[in-house]
Structures are given as structure tokens and as C-alpha cells.
Amino acid sequence: MTDFTEFVVREAVTEADRRAAFAVRREVFVVEQGVPAELEYDAHDSTAVHVLAVRRGDGTALGTGRLLYGADAAGRTGGDEGVGSLGRLAVTEAARGLGAGAALVRAIEDAARARGLTAVDLHAQTRVVGFYERLGYAAYGAEFHDAGIPHLAMRRSL
Q: Whose C-alpha in 95, 109, 124, 128 is 20 to 30 A from the C-alpha of 155?
């Protein structure tokens, strides 16, 4: 087993970072979970804040996530522009269970705070609701399907 205990999370600002983030999303969502690529990538990718977890030393991409805010998030947050939308959180299979997912969530929350947001919403696959609950998120509303996968809306005040 590869040792991923030493990783860093950073904003994905370079083109290489974004390619790495999109490659993780492709591996996890498109290949592993069968989400159609045309649903996985959208117009919000160009305006979102993307974060990337990489292994120290060689820079191997371990995980990614994104934050939508302002008008881009309003459709997912009930129209409240003070609430950001965390999404596309993905950790490679080899790096799961090592803390990268939680670190990515915290980095997205930090990015939200830096933009003056007061809360973060997300749409969690129901099988990982417990992960988000442990990070302080609470589910609300009825279960719904996105890309054929059951989800629950969740929110955490910052």
C-alpha cells in the first residue's frame, strides 16, 4: 500500500492543478461511479474555486472539490447568495480513509469564509452523509436523485 500520510491541500489555480482536479473527478465520478461526463463537467467549473489535495514530494493528486458562490451557487442554496455550495468532492480510491476528504472540506470552508459567506450547502450522496455529519453538516429536505444517485441536501453554518 502506498503511504499518503503526508499531503497538502491548496487552491487549484494553475492549469496543471485544474487538469489534476478534473482527472480525479473523472476517475471517481465518471469511471468508478458511472456519472456521464457531460453531467460531471459544467459551466461552473470556469468560475468555481477548486481545491486539490496532493501528496508531498511527488505532487500526486489525491482529491479535489469545488466551491460555488454568489449567483453561481444561488440555484443550489435556495437563492441565498451568502451561502456557498460545496461540490464535486472526490478522493481517489487509494487515498480514502487518510483524512484528505475532511481536509478538502475544511479548505473549501476557508475559501467560503474568505469570500464573506456565512454557510456552506452541499448535496451529499446518501451513502456518505455520515462523513459530512461528522464535519458538522446537517441534512435537510427530502432525498433526491442526481445523476441517478440518491442524495440529501446538507448545510453547515460557518
A: 95
Element (H, E) at 38: helix 37-40
Give yes or no for a contact between 48 and 67, defined as CB atoms under 8 angstroms apart.
yes
Helix or strand holding residue 16 (H, E):
helix 15-25
Question: What's the confidence (pLDDT) of residue 5?
Answer: 63
What percent of the chain has a predicted confidence (pLDDT) above 70?
97
Q: Are 44 and 25 in contact (CB under 8 A)?
A: no
The widest CA-to-CA distance across the chain, in whole angstroms, is 45
pTM score, whole prediction = 0.92
CB-based contacts of 111, cutoff 8 Å, min separation 6:
11, 49, 51, 67, 84
Render 43-78 in DSSP notation, one character per residue: GGGGTSEEEEEEETTT--EEEEEEEE-THHHHTTTT
| Strands 119-125 vs 83-91: parallel, antiparallel or unpaired | parallel
Per-residue confidence band for 2, with pLDDT thresholds at 50, 70 and 90: very low
Q: What is the pLDDT of residues 69-104, one digit of tens each?
A: 999 998 888 888 899 999 999 999 989 988 999 999
